[in-house]
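Revision sheet: C-alpha cells.
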Amino acid sequence: MDKKENFFKVKHLYNRAGFGIAYPELEHLSKKNLHKSIKELFSNAQKINDLSTVDASETRQQLLMQAGLNGKKDFSPEEKEQRQEIIRKISQKGRDLNIEWIQRMITTDAPLLEKMTLFWHGHFACRSGNPLFSQQLNNIQRKYALGSFKTLLIEVSKSPAMLQYLNNQQNRKNHPNENFARELMELFTIGRGNYTEQDIRESARAFTGWTYNKDGDFEFKPNIHDTGSKVFFGKTGNFDGEAIIDLILEKPATATFICRKLYTFFVSDTPNEAHIQELSSCFYDQKYDISAVMKKMFEAEWFYSPENTGNKIKSPAELLVGLSREFFVTYNKPQVLIQLQSSLGQYLFNPPNVAGWPGGRSWIDSSSLMLRMKIPSLVLNDGLIDFNAKADPEEEALLAINRKPKIQKKSYINAEANWEKFLSTLPKNCSTADLTAFLLQPTPGSKIKSLTANSSDLKKTAIEITSTPEYQLC
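Predicted:
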C-alpha cells in the first residue's frame, strides 16, 4: 500500500477508534500493513484498569447518614448543615469521578478501550445520585467493552445504577414496574417495532426480584419474584430475567439494532444498510462477540472510503480529549473540564435522559459552534472564558425551587500545552501544509490553505487550524 494513503487511513482509524494519534506513531504505523495497526489497537485494549476515585466504604457511610437525615421532618440547624455538607461531599465525588475518566481518556495508552467505554456509556445511558453506583457501571462498561455483549448486557442490567434509574427496585410480583423492561428492548437491544406491549408486560414480570442491597451489590429476592408462566415473543415458560435476555439475543434484529448504533457512532451518521447487515451478520454469527464485529468494521474497505472520512462532528468529549492528547495539555485546575463539558452539552455521567445524547448534528447549534471554535485557542493560550452551560433539567428544577438565578461564570482555563513536546514530535522541516494534513481529517479547503500559506510559525498555525470549523470534524 502507498505510504501516503496508509498515513491517512491510520490517522482515520485512530481518530475513530481512539482520540487521535501522535505524529511519530502515525509515521511508524504508516510504514506497516494496516492490519498490524488494527491488531495493535486491540492488543493495547487488554489493559483494563478500573476507575477508583470513589471510595466504597466512605461513600456508603455518607449515603446512610444522608438517608437517616432525609427520613426526618424537622431539622435542627446543625442537622441541616450536616445534611448540606454530606450532599456537597457526594456531589464532589461525582465531579472527581468525571475528571478521573476524562483524564484517563487524555492519557490512556488503550484508546480503543476508552472509546468503546464511551460508546457504551451513551448506549446504556444512566444517571445516578450515587457516585459509587456510577463508578461501578462505568467499570462494568469498560470490563466488557470488547467482550461478550450478552455478558455486558446482563451485568449492566444487574448494576445498582441501572436498577435504580429505571425503577426495577419497585418491580415486584402483583405490582410490576415496566420501565426497565421497556427500555431494555426499546433502547438497549432490539429497538421499536420488534416487540409488543404484551412482551413488555411479560418481560417486566420476569425481572421482578432483581434488586440491590444497602452495600450496592446485586441481590435477587425470590419472595417478590413472579414465578408464574409468561408468554414472551410467542414462547411460554417460567422465564426469569436472564432467560428474557437470551430470547432477545436469539432475534437477529437485536444484532442489527446494535450494529446500526455502532455504525452511526464509529462510521457515519447516515446508515448504509448493506454495511450494517454485513456487520450484524458477523455479530450474530460470532455470538455477539464485540471485538469480532469491531475488527470486521475496522478492516472493511468502506470504513476508509472518502464518504466516511472527515464526515462526523466530534462529540464534546472527543473534542476535549483529542485536543488535550494532541498538544499534551495539563489542566492545573481540572474542575474546568466539568465546566467545558457542561457548556458544550455533554456532561459525562449526566446524560439528558435514558436515550443518551442524540449525537451527530445535535452537537452543533449557533452558540455551541462559536464556543467550540474558541476552545482550542483558549486551552492552548490559557484564555478567559464565559461559562454558560446548556440547560440541564435537574439543575434547572433545583434553581427554580431555590429561586436562585443562574450565575454566568468567568474563568481562566488554567491549562498548559506542552508546545516543546508537540513541536518535537513533528518531522524535521515540517511545513504548514504537513501540519495541516496532520491536524485535520477533512481535505483542507482553499480558505485554510490561504490561512496557513504565508505562516512560518508552527505554533501559531496549529492554533489557527484547530480554531477552524474543519477541526470539529473527524
